[in-house]
Amino acid sequence: MCDNQVEEKTSDPGFPLPDPAAVPGCSSCAGHVESIRGARRGGNQSATTDQRVLMRRHIDLEHR
Length: 64
Known about the structure:
The structure is a single chain. The protein is an all-alpha fold and 64 residues long. It is 52% helix and 0% strand. The protein contains two helices and no strands. It has helices at residues 27-41, 45-62. Helix 1 runs antiparallel to helix 2. The protein is flat, with a radius of gyration of 16 Å.
């Protein structure tokens, strides 16, 4: 490989990631799902991404 070539990544995480799955019975998860849907309906991709990140954090902190 030449010095000016970029090595191709072999582990593609599959962007964009799928929406996180809500935990049944969790009102916080349900609220995040509604926020994601609302942002998506409004065409606000930035807010959609923000809400998905917040939901993943919630799941990591509260359900794992």
